[in-house]
């Protein structure tokens, strides 16, 4: 398989002060991603200052001499964009996404932040608390603790990768503003930075804009040079962490290659071989055949200096640790002594080639790849990567496995239950083990903020003209709608930007159609769809899609497929096969049941999810949504093949299904293929949907589960609304003012995170969970036990205020500008467009919705916000669900 180099015309400019600029024009969607990369991360930190790079990243949003605290986020929202940042070992990066008619504001902000950041002592202490809460969140996760200990053991104490990116707690508690400022002055300089701009821009104009904003900033002639050598390990290293958990988990780390090393390409192939897809050797051995683990994954992590290759696994209850290690070791030894068959190597290269194309769908994905490559080595790696991978041979795979994946080069870390009897005999799915209910990591908001002239910066009301750029090409999002004789609704959107095709079949099925005794039936049925059909075995299904580098995912409400467009016929045939002809083999059903049970056990270690499930149980009463969507251990154990078949026969029917197809195909070809694959699917008379009432709480109703962890996770709220509620767009706007504002701009985040430093994650909303069935209004926070009462009081105060006091015109304009200005980001990938088409059909939004939505948001008034808050938010009658240490008063 020849992996084609991407057709990317990248322009590199280096200015006199050392600043590097990369520009890539991508004109298919009217948006721009602008990123800046500093060559400084946790690897550059001295002893006693661990975590300072990440701490500084947080503080970069706290204000400059030009932009007061909160201005950066407010300006971003006012211009309809969003921003964020990230820190790892070798770099710190910041990014902005804007529509292409306003992206230049990102350069203004970044040029100012490079020179004029302030470290106010009070703000410094508030953000220190936030970072410490982030650390506690990581320490509350068994995988988080394993990861921290793995790096500390794999790399010796003097090595720059030894300590965690977030830092050691004692250092975070001690670091001073003066130390952070000195670090900032040293490393945040143009000759230590790379700017990457990708999107709907003109290259020369971008170069001129960067020159205007950055050319005058002086370089640092005394920039420190980081030196590190490859760590030498003479023998295997081991450690064990005893946790309050019911599952055994293992992480195995091997010293590996740097990004620039030739062996890194072979390690990428080995990564795919071991765990990419159901046909991979570790999946087949440990999950499918021997059923030793519920989850297996690998990760090649190249860095500036030699990085690491990791293997992760979560064991099924009762499985001995030694059996898992032995099975993994035997598969690695097989790679070391047997040449890989050419068809296996070609399959992996197909997968890598397809992923390489899929990643080109977004400007942000391209900007991230280019920035990381240039920071660690050279942006030309984006060309070198596919060229080198295409040349990899089976001999290269064997030689690289013999070099790196050896016993003496590895560190093995185990997370085990504190007491052997603590391991629970049953437990849900590996892929979903780390699931978190929707929360937004948000920080600060100020409705009125000084601008550069010292005046008050105020978000202006949106323009009466459409404030986004879809009007530039009104035909781009026009789609076809067909209804087959059997009732199947087909939505097709033609897109030829890339040779990519996405298909999603949404079935009106799911948890709401289960009885209490059948809890988990919908998930079990959905996960069995690709485990064998009348035409293909489970392995043959996986082999078919993986051979062309595609992906197929099944869930309780249908099936989705993504392939290169040349494989549309194969993909549609496969989608129809798993959607219409599953056999629900008894042996596969039992395997899947056991994996779901194990994954339920893993969910018990995710306290935010435990609290969310407890909250839904309280809110929904007897409605089916009161149950965890995966069900309970006792109900899953009782489900039979007959239950699955009966459920499938009723609900998986064409007259309950919407099929969305987006990508590089013609309508004529697509219609014929759909008719051929789905035309004979038999319709059935639809059952009447069950009706349920959801009771409102009376007063404050509380439930608490005691767990000895660093944080308490709290949900506060009550029943919400449906997506079809006539006030939905008012509530959606209200949410952005109250609890899910752009970046860090909403009231609750400003008060509880930014001003009081109570949490790293905090949010509140009523619209995001709304579907055909009512959602919930929920306010969430994960915080230290001592802060829980203050957090609850803060939630209730803000809910009361938005009901009793009109929001300001500036707040409303800020929310409207953000929602309408950022709307374009929902339509960048074929997967996003397929989901949009399904929602448009499902909620009867009309084929003009993509153009109508901004006007619906612009029409929201201050009076409507207050009336909706009074009608739908209730600070007197609510539920509180909490999980953690210490009973809530």
Automatic annotation (TrEMBL):
Peptidase M16 N-terminal domain boundaries: 28-142, 502-621
Q: GO biological process annotations for this chain's record?
A: proteolysis
> Which segments constitute the Peptidase M16 C-terminal domain?
175-351, 639-817
Task: Show the InterPro entries listed in the entry.
Answer: Metalloenz_LuxS/M16, MPP/UQCRC_Complex, Pept_M16_N, Pept_M16_Zn_BS, Peptidase_M16_C
A molecular function (GO) held by this record is: metalloendopeptidase activity
Of which family is this protein a member? Belongs to the peptidase M16 family.
Q: What is this protein's record name?
A: Predicted Zn-dependent peptidases
Question: Organism classification, top ranks?
Answer: Bacteria, Candidatus Moduliflexota, Candidatus Vecturitrichia, Candidatus Vecturitrichales, Candidatus Vecturitrichaceae
């Amino acid at each position: 398989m020849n992996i084609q180099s991407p057709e990317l015309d990248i322009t590199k400019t280096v200015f006199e002060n050392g600043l590097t600029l990369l520009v890539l024009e991508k004109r298919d969607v009217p948006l721009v991603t602008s990123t800046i990369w500093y060559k400084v991360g946790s690897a550059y930190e001295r002893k006693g200052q661990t975590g300072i790079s990440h701490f500084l990243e947080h503080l970069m949003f706290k204000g400059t001499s030009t932009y007061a605290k909160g201005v950066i986020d407010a300006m971003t929202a006012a211009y309809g964009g969003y921003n964020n940042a990230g820190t790892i070992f070798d770099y710190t990066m910041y990014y902005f996404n804007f529509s292409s008619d306003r992206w230049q504001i990102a350069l203004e902000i970044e040029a100012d932040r490079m020179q004029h950041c302030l470290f106010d002592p009070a703000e410094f202490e508030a953000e220190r608390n936030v970072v410490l809460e982030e650390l506690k969140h990581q320490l509350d996760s068994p995988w988080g603790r394993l990861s921290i200990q793995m790096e500390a053991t794999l790399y010796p104490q003097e090595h720059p990768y030894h300590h965690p990116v977030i830092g050691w707690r004692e250092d975070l508690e001690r670091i001073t503003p003066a130390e952070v400022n000195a670090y900032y002055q040293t490393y945040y300089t143009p000759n230590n930075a790379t700017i990457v701009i990708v999107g709907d821009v003109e290259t020369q104009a971008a170069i001129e804009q960067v020159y205007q904003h950055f050319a005058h900033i002086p370089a640092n002639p005394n920039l420190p040079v980081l030196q590190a050598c490859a760590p030498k390990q003479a023998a295997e290293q081991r450690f064990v962490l005893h946790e309050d958990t019911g599952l055994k988990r293992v992480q195995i780390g091997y010293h590996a290659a740097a990004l620039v090393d030739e062996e890194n390409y072979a390690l990428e192939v080995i990564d795919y071989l071991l765990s990419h897809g159901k046909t991979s050797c570790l999946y087949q051995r440990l999950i499918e055949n021997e059923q030793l683990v519920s989850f297996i994954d690998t990760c090649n992590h190249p860095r500036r200096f030699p990085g690491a290759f990791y293997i992760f696994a979560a064991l099924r209850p009762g499985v001995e640790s030694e059996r898992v290690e032995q099975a993994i070791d035997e598969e690695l030894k097989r790679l070391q002594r047997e040449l890989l068959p050419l068809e296996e190597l070609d399959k992996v290269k197909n997968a890598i080639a397809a992923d390489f194309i899929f990643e080109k769908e977004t400007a942000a994905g391209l900007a991230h790849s280019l920035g990381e490559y240039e920071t660690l080595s050279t942006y030309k790696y984006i060309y070198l990567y596919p060229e080198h991978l295409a040349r990899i041979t089976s001999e290269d795979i064997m030689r690289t496995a013999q070099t790196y994946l050896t016993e003496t080069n590895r560190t093995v870390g185990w997370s085990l239950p504190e007491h052997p009897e603590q391991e629970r005999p049953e437990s849900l799915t590996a892929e979903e083990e780390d699931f978190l209910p929707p929360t937004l990591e948000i920080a600060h908001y100020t409705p009125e903020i000084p601008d550069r002239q010292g005046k008050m910066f105020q978000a202006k009301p949106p323009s009466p003209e459409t404030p986004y750029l879809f009007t530039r090409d009104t035909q781009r999002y026009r789609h076809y709608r067909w209804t087959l004789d059997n009732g199947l609704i087909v939505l097709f959107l033609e897109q030829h930007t890339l040779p990519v095709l996405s298909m999603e079949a949404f079935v009106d099925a799911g948890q709401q159609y289960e009885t209490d005794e059948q809890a988990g039936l919908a998930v079990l049925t959905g996960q069995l769809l690709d485990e064998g059909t009348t035409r293909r075995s489970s392995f043959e299904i996986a082999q078919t899609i993986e051979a062309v580098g595609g992906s197929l995912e099944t869930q309780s409400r249908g099936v989705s497929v993504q392939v290169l467009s040349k494989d549309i016929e194969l993909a549609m045939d496969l989608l129809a096969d798993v959607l219409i002809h599953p056999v629900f083999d008894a042996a596969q059903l039992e395997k899947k049941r056991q994996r779901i049970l194990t994954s339920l056990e893993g969910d018990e270690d995710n306290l935010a999810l435990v609290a969310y499930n407890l909250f839904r149980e309280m809110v929904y009463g007897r409605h089916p949504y009161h149950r965890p969507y995966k069900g309970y251990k006792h109900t899953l154990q009782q489900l039979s093949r007959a239950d699955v078949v009966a459920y499938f026969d009723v609900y998986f029917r064409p007259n309950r299904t919407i099929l969305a197809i987006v990508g590089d195909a013609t309508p004529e070809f697509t219609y014929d293929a759909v008719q051929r694959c789905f035309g004979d699917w038999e319709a059935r008379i639809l059952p009447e949907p069950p009706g349920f009432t959801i009771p409102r709480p009376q007063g404050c109703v509380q439930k608490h589960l005691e767990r000895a962890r660093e944080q308490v996770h709290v949900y506060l709220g009550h029943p919400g609304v449906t997506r079809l509620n006539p006030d939905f767009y008012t509530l959606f706007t209200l949410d952005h003012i109250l609890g899910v504002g752009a970046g860090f701009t909403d009231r609750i985040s400003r008060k509880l995170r930014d001003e009081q430093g109570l949490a790293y994650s905090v949010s509140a909303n009523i619209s995001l969970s709304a579907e055909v069935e009512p959602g919930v209004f929920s306010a969430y926070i994960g915080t230290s036990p001592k802060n829980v009462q203050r957090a609850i009081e803060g939630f209730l105060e803000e809910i009361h205020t938005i009901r009793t006091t009109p929001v300001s015109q500036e707040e409303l304009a800020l929310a409207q500008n953000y929602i309408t200005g950022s709307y374009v980001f929902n339509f960048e990938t074929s997967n996003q467009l397929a989901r949009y088409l399904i929602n448009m059909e499902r909620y009867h939004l009309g084929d003009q919705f993509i153009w109508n939505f901004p006007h619906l948001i612009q029409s929201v008034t201050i009076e409507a916000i207050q009336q909706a808050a009074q009608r739908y938010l209730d600070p007197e009658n609510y539920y509180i669900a909490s999980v953690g240490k210490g009973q809530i008063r």
